[in-house]
DNA sequence: TCGTTCTTTATACAGTCGTATAACAGACGA
DNA sequence: TCGTCTGTTATACGACTGTATAAAGAACGA
């Protein structure tokens, strides 16, 4: 799993004779926040491409164009950096989806429809993102630091969803108590998560372009809205290549 | 991440002086199938408890009560064993859920309700199972061997679901063409996956006991069934502690 | 009871892991 | 232009990785 015996010697070219005066790699100093972000994104890149086992300190550092020692300097430990990369990812994910709902100030139905659809369309529908997400989810149970990040980001997502659902329910005269809203938000979140997941993995069993339609139709039924209450906003959406 | 510096020396007691006549560990030979199953289950245990990084060949072997060399003997490589452990897990998961639907030969609605509910109740609702599942899902993109296992098990699940949905739609006079069934199965699968996932992780944001009710109510809406068409079978279900 | 078979143990190996430490050098104020 | 600060590189260390190999011993037929 680790030991692919014959690896390239990786001599890196452009080295001066080296035995005489061992010249060092030139570098530039960055502000703490900038270097941290670069490392976090390199971490996500590595995990996304090669999985958790392929994301070693040395490999991440190389990806970020620095040496491995910097990890300790900026994050204290590898573990801590990976944890922060998870938080970084989840912040990105939910903020991107929430932004999709804000774009355009139409009816409550339109906003909800855009949000639901955006979660099962590119760029959110992405094997890389699902791989990353899944890798981290695998650590939520048992590793305390991960579970609080998960809980926080899940709560955030539920709240966004609740704020989108409530006005729609009111407008259509459906029960809209906090409890009703919450149950529906939980269910709708499940639907979105599951479709996003399977759609992203792109197993070839169906065309992912069908997902926005499937998701919106299911959401209508789930919320007991009249047919096409959400679906009719599908044409507003940006085209899918 | 790997190097917890001060590990127990792990001397194992019950050793004869050892320098004189180096006695070997006693063992018993097992049939190939039995030893393989034992190793696969030890693999799942290790990944479930410590994550992918904690599931080394030596640790898995120790868990199974053997030495690491056996992995090569029975599986050829560590990678191959882990892949087969994934297939083993997915077979378990879907067959357990399908069995829940078979138990009791009532109406189509009851069978569907049992299946949906079983997926969001113990013992399917389990942090261990979600952790395992997520860890493997993280490898589906990019590692070819995993993607075919994923596709096969997903297709299997979809087919089970379709067979359960169809008679219910017919009975209630809803559209039941293959295409309609398939779209609904995809959506319902998403709902089940998502609720199973979040419920298993048990973030403390709501009581998982509410999940069967939420899932069944959402499924009713999703399939456009009359209210309580599925929910009224909830009382048949085995009590949740 | 002896031989044979082949699962299993034991050990060695090269490579990678995370991280601690010390020397270097970029950036900036004086 | 020189010092100072500290972000960064380089290197060493011990633990652990997967796997290849050979010896051992459990099970079973004759």
UniProtKB/TrEMBL annotation, chains A, B:
User: Which sections of the sequence are annotated for DNA binding?
Assistant: 56-75
The residue range of the signal peptide is none
Single Gene Ontology MF annotation? transcription cis-regulatory region binding
Q: Which InterPro entries match?
A: BetI_C, Homeodomain-like_sf, HTH-type_TetR-like_transc_reg, HTH_TetR, Tet_transcr_reg_TetR-rel_C_sf
Q: Where is the HTH tetR-type domain?
A: 33-93
Q: Where is this region: Disordered?
A: 1-23
Q: Which Pfam families match?
A: TetR_C_6, TetR_N
Cytoplasm as a keyword of this entry, yes or no, is no
Enumerate the UniProt keywords alphabetically. Answer: DNA-binding, Repressor, Transcription, Transcription regulation
- Please indicate which superkingdom the organism of origin belongs to: Bacteria
UniProt cross-references to PROSITE patterns, sorted A to Z:
HTH_TETR_2
Give the PANTHER family listed for this entry: HTH-TYPE TRANSCRIPTIONAL REGULATOR RUTR, TRANSCRIPTIONAL REGULATOR-RELATED
Instruction: Specify the protein name.
Output: TetR family transcriptional regulator
Q: List the top taxonomic levels of the source.
A: Bacteria, Pseudomonadati, Pseudomonadota, Alphaproteobacteria, Rhodobacterales
